[in-house]
Amino acid sequence: MAQETLPGVTDRRLAALLTILAENATIVTSGVRIAREMGVAPSTVWEGVRQLRGLGVRVKAQLGAGYFLEGVPDILTPGMLRQRLKGSLFGKHIYHFFKTDSTNRVALELGHAGEPEGAVILAEEQTAGKGRAGRIWQSERAAGIYVSLLLRPRLAPVQAPLLTMMAGLSARTAIEAQTGLSTDLKWPNDLLVRGKKVGGILTEMHAEPSQVRFVIVGIGLNVNQEKFPGELGTTASSLRIETGKQVSRLELLVWLLREFENDYNRFLHEGPARVTEKFEAVSSYAHGKRVRVTNGTTSFAGTTAGLGPEGLLLVKRDDGLVVTVISGDVEAR
Ligand code: BTN
Fold it and tell me: Which residues of the chain have pLDDT under 70?
């Protein structure tokens, strides 16, 4: 699907304006020069500046001289990403939104429209970010990474949830490399640091009974949030809170996409055993953890007993029966 036909996708002109301002960061660049470089009228530059400000980019105007950025914004523009992802599966079709409802929703639409494997859908802000079990994923502007990947693997639908766990492992490696933080994985999709959630993955798919048509892996990472609203404050954290330092979203995202591509290729060639083994090795939730499993209105207590071959969690109930958990919330007790 051509980028231009997707409503709301970042205007190429806006991205070009931001790139020019970022390349000349903190230097005043005249509106006429920007207009010339962009091949547009000066009034279009002014309109772009207005839009960027509305999106939280701090563009200053100096009367009679031009524009400059008050700081280099950590914005995930497709141009910058493409440069860093040359030759990668994820460097070809990058859709960037300053604001959208949900990148997973957009990715599903693209998937149905025939978009090829490897499309990356990114947003600086989501107004209806989807979490698991119908929950909302808080997506503060330019603070986190909100990204969905479109994949067309030759897999049976029962294997698709393994991609969620694989994505968790890729994100864990990227976070450790970028921040030094060690991340725990809570089955099936939570990334935790010191017991608080710093990321989650929502995999959605479109499939025939025996064959996946496409899978959307949606990854949300709390990167530079300084605090969380209401009750979330007790359960969620961000990499910035945990390290005390600002983290580059661009660097983290590039790392994540490279890791993901490696892990994905290995998964397709070698099968899922490596994913389940690695998950079991690094997740404190995989073995011997006292948990409560809740699914809708039913709930039971038990002790985790590893993963089945399709990545489903095994829990030994307190009455001795070993149960395979297909979906539901798992909480430490
Ligand atoms: C969870 O509940 O833990 C899963 C959260 C997944 C959030 C990400 S953010 C990018 C992508 N787009 C969405 O609407 N959701 C996922």
Answer: 1-11
